């Protein structure tokens, strides 16, 4: 693959990655705001007593952990961005879930993986327009002559991977994490779309076209 001046926009590229990670705190705050609205609605609509109890517990623990989630999400994002730049996230995503892997997973783990996939799809749909522009600018900043979406370390699936990681670090039970993923994942897309616009403006302001 041929590239143009690979170091020409290295500084804007690094600045963009750093800004994206730093904005993780605000991004998590917006996700939590969304979840704090949707969780009570889900509780009110729950017909099953066990599900209502799990949703109530999820809301209680979310309020307990919200400060920690806001503080830790930027670092989780930075770690995921670094892996994506190194190509590790692409390799893992390409592998998917094999039948052998599924056999080794419990029901809760399988359901959590399903929630991750749903969050990734919902987020992608919500940012589709903004992502196209960011892909072009990120690729230009890396010196690529053509747009290669997989070379964008700020893809929606990377943000969801960071979300899954920071939720797992809380140590809350898997059923609670699944419901957090569901509610926070619903709120991620609209919030991330705003971030993508900001990051695209940042790159253009630094001379990337």
Q: Can you characterise this structure?
A:
This protein is 80% helix and 0% strand. By secondary structure, it is an all-alpha fold. Helix 6 (107-141) packs across helix 7. The two termini are 20 Å apart. It has helices spanning 10-22, 24-45, 49-86, 88-95, 99-104, 107-141, 156-168, 174-205. It contains 8 helices and no strands.
Helix content: over 70%
- Structural shape: elongated
- Taking all residues together, what is the mean pLDDT? 89
Number of helices: 8
How many beta-strand elements?
0
Low-confidence stretches: 1-6, 91-98
Topology:
Blueprint: H1 10-22, H2 24-45, H3 49-86, H4 88-95, H5 99-104, H6 107-141, H7 156-168, H8 174-205
Helix pairs in contact: 1-3, 1-8, 2-3, 2-8, 3-7, 3-8, 6-7, 6-8, 7-8
Short descriptors:
disordered N terminus, 8 helices, 209 residues, mainly alpha, elongated
Summarize the structure.
The protein is mostly helical and 209 residues long. 80% of the residues lie in helices and 0% in strands.
């Amino acid at each position: 693959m041929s590239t143009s001046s690979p170091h020409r926009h290295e500084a804007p590229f690094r600045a963009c990655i750093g800004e994206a990670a730093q904005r993780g705190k605000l991004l998590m705050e917006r996700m939590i705001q969304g979840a704090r609205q949707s969780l009570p609605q889900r509780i009110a609509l729950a017909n099953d007593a066990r599900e209502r109890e799990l949703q109530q517990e999820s809301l209680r623990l979310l309020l307990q952990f919200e400060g920690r989630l806001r503080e830790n999400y930027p670092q989780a994002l930075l770690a995921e961005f670094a892996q994506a730049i190194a190509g590790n996230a692409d390799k893992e995503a390409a592998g998917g879930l094999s039948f052998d892997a599924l056999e080794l997973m419990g029901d809760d783990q399988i359901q959590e993986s399903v929630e991750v996939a749903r969050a990734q799809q919902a987020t992608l749909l919500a940012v589709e327009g903004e992502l196209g522009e960011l892909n072009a600018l990120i690729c230009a900043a890396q010196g690529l002559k053509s747009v290669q979406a997989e070379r964008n370390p700020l893809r929606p699936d990377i943000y969801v991977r960071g979300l899954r990681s920071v939720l797992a670090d809380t140590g809350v039970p898997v059923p609670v994490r699944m419901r957090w993923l569901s509610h926070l994942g619903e709120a991620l897309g609209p919030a991330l779309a705003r971030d993508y616009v900001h990051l695209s403006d940042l790159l253009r302001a630094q001379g990337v076209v």
